[in-house]
Amino acid sequence: MSNLPLRQCLLAETLGTAGLLLFGTGAVVVNEQTQALGHGGIAAAFGLVVFLLIQSLGPVSGSHVNPAVTIGFWVAGRFPGRRVLPYVAAQLMGGVLGSGLVALVAAPGSGLGATRPAHTALEALGVETVLTFWLMLVILRVTAGSKEQGLLAGLAISATVGLEALVAGPLSGASMNPVRSLAPALVGGHLEAAWVYIVGPVAGVLLAVLCDRVLRIQPPITATEPASA
Fold first, then answer.
1. ∠ CA(48), CA(54), CA(60), 5° rounding?
2. What is the CATH architecture assignment of 6-216?
3. What is the pTM assigned to this prediction?
4. For the chain, which residues make up each domain, given as ranges?
5. How many angstroms separate the Cα of 216 from the Cα of each of 82, 134, 213?
6. Whole-angstrom Cα distance, residue 165 to residue 45?
7. pLDDT tens, 176-220?
8. Which residue ranges does UniProt annotate as crossing the membrane (predicted)?
9. 3-state SS string over the chain?
10. What is the mean pLDDT of residues 18-38?
């Protein structure tokens, strides 16, 4: 966790989340207008922007840019509770800022890259829970100890985002992030099924923290029998 003053961390979270929405959902909007990126290009855009944010802003704030990740780190005992609400507020502010910028170039009637269930809300809820579980588990495993600021950690996390967006994007939008879904929904005025993208990611990170704790359990030490004389 960063020891920098809270104001610097909040600025980093605001800028980072704005960048995530600007380039991630911006890719969706550009593809709506040009069909130049395709589904794979959109997934790659999300993975790439996450990698850049981790490498550039990670040393300042941890580059959570996701309220679910912030909550997950707090529950895991790796983030102070007094910073949770300020981080979430900064992320929401950054997300709305990013979506507002995307709206400036979007065509009339655009969803601004908002996530919506492809079928039922319950199916999307299950998908978002599973996706966020894997994302948070990867984050917890690759940021432990000396690996916290490593290049490979950033690659692993961004690759997870890109892979999950590629595979599950057509099902639920592959949000894994309440602000990533809420910001375009708020700016565009479409809050249908918004609860899915809050409940699913939060449930996913809680399950991931539990799983990480189980994986960290050390095997019992077996006493060695003394050698016979």
1. 150
2. Up-down Bundle (1.20)
3. 0.91
4. 6-216
5. 26, 16, 5
6. 10
7. 999 999 999 999 988 889 999 999 999 999 999 999 999 987 666
8. 9-30, 36-54, 84-106, 118-140, 152-173, 193-211
9. CCCCCHHHHHHHHHHHHHHHHHHHHHHHHHHHHHCCCHHHHHHHHHHHHHHHHHHHHHHHHCCCCCHHHHHHHHHCCCCCHHHHHHHHHHHHHHHHHHHHHHHHHCCCCCCCCCCCCCCCHHHHHHHHHHHHHHHHHHHHHHCCHHHCCCHHHHHHHHHHHHHHHHHHHHHHCCCCCHHHHHHHHHHHCCCCCCCHHHHHHHHHHHHHHHHHHHHHCCCCCCCCCCCCC
10. 96
Answer yes or no: are the C-beta atoms of 65 and 184 closer than 8 Å. Answer: no
Residues 6 or more apart whose Cβ sits within 8 Å of residue 218: none
The average confidence (pLDDT) of the chain is 92
Give the CA diameter of the chain. 88
Residue 147 has pLDDT above 80, yes or no: no
Question: Residue 229: is its pLDDT beyond 70?
Answer: no
Tokens of residue 153, six digits = 């950690």
Residues 163, 212: Cα–Cα separation, whole Å: 21
Quote the CA–CA distance of 30 and 38 in Å, as a whole number: 10
Type of residue found at 98: G
pLDDT reported for residue 226: 47
C-alpha distance across the termini of the chain, in Å: 53
Return the sign of the alpha-carbon dihedral for residues 196, 44, 90, 86.
positive
Q: How far apart are CA 154 and CA 147, in angstroms?
A: 10
